[in-house]
Model the fold of this input.
Amino acid sequence: MQAVIANDRDAGFAGLSLSDVPYPHAAENDVIVRVHAAAFTPGELDWPGTWTDRAGRDRTPTVPGHEVSGTVVELGYGTTGLTIGQRVFGITDWARNGTLAEYVAVEARNLAPLSADVDHTAAAALPISGLTARQGLFDHGHLATGQTVLIHGVAGAVGSIAAQLAHACGARVIGTGRAGQRDAALDLGADVFVELEPGWSEAVGQVDMVFDVLGGEVLNRSAQLVRPGGTLVTIAEPPRIQPADARAVFFVVEPDRTQLVMLEHELREGRLRPSVGAVVPLSDAVSAFDPGKRAAGKTIIRVVDGS
Done:
């Protein structure tokens, strides 16, 4: 089968190529998914798990990508809950070969059923962004109706989902970003948009929760904005400054089939819109990693035409 592979940790996207690789093996509790559409995270070539297995052993050449939508074609020994021919979507393990391929082996528990009326392109854009947003807001941030949440990077892949989920739960949403993102942020459910320019924190005021995807000085300043009893949640880096009388949480998204099912329901009912950017065929997937060609939204790799 064909897949995007990375051979050189120091070469960045220049070390990627489209190559013929062996068909994947279905281990115990795995399924093999015929990939219809897949997605990747731009920074994943810097992740340790991209290059080593869980024991720290080198596993190059490695296949990037950790979001998938497709069809189950094979069940590993002991696999239950899914059937051959079933449409599925989900997230793959960080330390195994990924989804930018014609077929991928995935732990069955990391996948959820995908309804026939949901297209694979939209589904592939949802797993990491959707799970990150839901877990950050509710599992870690404990956001509740009537509270105010500040979402940095509100027009990005994670921030856009977070804004929609927070708005749907009855929270007041303040979003930040670049000036040209104002209309998009308000359309996603933000009540207020604040441009990230000098003085932005004074324009925000006190909030019950901060959801940060940017890190750096934005994260540092955000610690001063959390009300006592509130929460600062970030996926960018461990906070260097702790908010006074409030919690600070840094987390990495976890697979969760139950949450994937809930996200798929919201997507199917039209209440959730993932941020889909460029859609490119597998044959052009290497170029999609080029920082100079990156478009807004989640880049989707189309493996089967019509997905």
Q: What stands out?
A: The CA atoms of residues 232 and 248 lie 5 Å apart. The radius of gyration is 19 Å.
